[in-house]
Amino acid sequence: MAEPIPDVADERVADFRDLHAGDRPAGRERGTGPVIVEGVPAVQRLLASPYRVRAVLGVPGRLAELDLPPGVPAYEMDKWALSELIGFRLTRGVLASADRRPPADLDALLAGPDPAAPRRLAVLEALNDAENLGSIARSAVALGVDGLLLDPRCADPLYRRSVRVSMGHVLALPFAVLPDWPGGLARLHDAGYLTVALTPAADAVDLGDVDPRAHPRTAVLLGAEGPGLTPEAQAAARVRARIPMRAGVDSLGVAAAAAVAFATLR
């Protein structure tokens, strides 16, 4: 049973105060603060994830759509008070907050539960757009990618906009930071991965020529929208590959390119 909250100053809903529509709230630095999840499907995925739920907040009627386990604090607000609390009009009707989990241990992520099993990773360089990161995470979960590796300049995968665009799927995807970039790619090679750098360059091989059966462990490198992968990252990868496209189209957006690559190398 949800407890009604009539006062936006109530400290029980402090996790949700001043979220703002597009900007990170003041005082909540990158990689800090609770994870915020929006919408019934995404909150359901949070409940099924290893993240500890701190609180759930929604408008009357929407909380009933959730299968809340015992002990999860649940609060109810009318839509006007909720909008005032979070700083924008929430169309999804429900939010949840959860404790952050630290990034995965890099060696454990590379090995996976079975070091002999096939494995796919997505490796992101300077991908600082939260929505692109969320879209890539959603495609990764859908298309059999087992984890994300981020260089130090990437956006926070647990930022609210990343979680929202991923529809909560990013909460099921382990991620780790590769601090030595791009030199740290050697650790992937040592762990048996073929690193495939996506680029639209004409001298790159056709992505379809990279046989996933011959390379049961593959890591796809993706760069930021616009600049793409740096020459240094491309040089550190084992293969430079391009997605074949019609003449006159030089590239795809990074989220679309990621989905094509994940499906091709599955």
UniProtKB/TrEMBL annotation:
Residues 1-33 are annotated as: Disordered. GO terms for molecular function: RNA binding; RNA methyltransferase activity. InterPro entries: Alpha/beta_knot_MTases, Ribosomal_eL30-like_sf, rRNA_Methyltransferase, SpoU_MeTrfase, tRNA_m1G_MTases_N. Residues 122-262 form the tRNA/rRNA methyltransferase SpoU type domain. Residues 9-31 have a biased composition (Basic and acidic residues). One of its GO terms (biological process) is methylation. Keywords: Methyltransferase, Transferase. It holds the Pfam family SpoU_methylase. This is tRNA G18 (Ribose-2'-O)-methylase SpoU.
